[in-house]
Amino acid sequence: MIGWWKTWKALEAKGIMGINRRNADYVLKYNKRSLYPIVDDKIITKERAIAAGIHVPEMYGIISTEKEIEKLDDIIGGRSDFVIKPAQGAGGDGILVIADRFEERFRTISGRIISHEEIEHQISSILTGLYSLGGHRDRALIEYRVTPDQIFKSISYEGVPDIRVIVLMGYPVMAMLRLPTRQSGGKANLHQGAIGVGVDLATGLTLRGTWLNNIISKHPDTTNAVDGVQLPNWDGFMKLAAECYELCGLGYIGVDMVLDQDRGPLILELNARPGLNIQIANDCGLTHRTTAVEQRLAELAAQGRHESPEERVKFAQALFGHV
User: Fold this and answer.
1) pTM listed for this prediction
2) How confident is the model at residue 4 (pLDDT cuts 50, 70, 90)?
3) What is the per-residue DSSP string for 148-171?
4) A GO molecular-function term, please (predicted)?
5) Is 191 part of a structural domain of the chain?
6) In which domain, by residue range, is 85 found?
7) 76 Cβ neighbours under 8 A, 6+ residues apart
8) How far is residue 234 CA from its own chain's centroid?
9) Inside any domain, residue 197
10) Cα dihedral 31, 37, 42, 46 in deg (nearest 10)
């Protein structure tokens, strides 16, 4: 009992946020339920981002009913690569990434050869709600397949690395690079075996990594170091993340972004209930940072003003940078 108490006090002193505190003090406090559909449905998120002039992977088409599966050929046209996602999916489940064509069939990112009928079956499963939050009927989104920037070639296995930034009331508070592995099947989802690497908010320099809840310094597949990597266009990523507060209206979100080798930073999706493993990757608790933002908001409210996305980024980088 004494040992447990000491551990808990040590975590509290470090500012580690637990799931109960996240839900009670941030998700419930800052996220209106009426706004959840904006982030829980990837199609709605994408449409609002496009309207706001925020860059996202190009949307090729939407399939909403079994009958509309007939439109698949028209949607993909002569493209050799594309991505199919459940609009309301979570954790990367149900996503099908096509990397190339092979005669009359298709090759997935993992190298598996599948038929046109298998793709149709996957879309049908998406429509039934197999991968959706709550099991409700869903829509299938067909979109541009991101080509990762070459900087990730040595520290990622297949798939597309992404950057998760936790944002409180428009202020970035913590960032993490998520790297696919062989175990994760090329997906950047930590619970499937991807690596989480902390990122310094001020500079965009990667810190240490966490894999399956263990601290690591090298990628298990490429054996290259995951720390000390300078992410390009970091200020652009930070500004994108800050702008997502105005985009969705939710006060506590996880912003997932990617770096395409041709199109630069793109918003992938938003999450109203971002996970907490980001604290392990950064060796730092969220609570101290979120408290600092709340104090900043109180000061601004007393002055009767608010800050722009650029000002919010500047504040966060000055206060939360590791270096």
Assistant:
1) 0.91
2) very low
3) B-GGGTTT--SS--EEEEEEETTE
4) ATP binding
5) yes
6) 58-143
7) 60, 61, 82, 142
8) 16
9) yes
10) -80
Pairing between β-strand 105-108 and β-strand 113-114 as defined by DSSP bridges: antiparallel
Find the Cα–Cα–Cα–Cα dihedral 217, 223, 224, 228, rounded to 10°.
-10
Number of domains the chain contains: 2
Q: What is the pLDDT of residue 12?
A: 65
**Separation of alpha carbons 35 and 78, rounded Å:** 37
**Residue 166 is which amino acid?**
I
Instruction: Look up residue 98 and give its two tokens.
Output: 């096509």
CA distance between the termini of the chain:
37
Looking at this protein, which amino acid is placed at residue 38?
I
**Is the alpha carbon torsion for 186, 192, 193, 199 positive or negative?**
positive
The counts of H helices and E strands in the chain are 11, 13
For residue 17, what is the domain's CATH number? 3.30.470.20
For residues 315 and 318, what is the distance between their CA atoms, to the nearest angstrom? 5
Q: What is the 3-state secondary structure (H, E, C) of 178-233?
A: EECCCCCCCCCCHHHCCEEEEECCCCCEEEEEEECCEEECECCCCCCECCCCECCC
DSSP-based helix, strand, coil % in the chain, nearest 5:
40, 25, 35
- pLDDT tens digit string along 154-167? 898 888 899 999 99
Pick the last residue of a domain from 88, 123, 143.
143
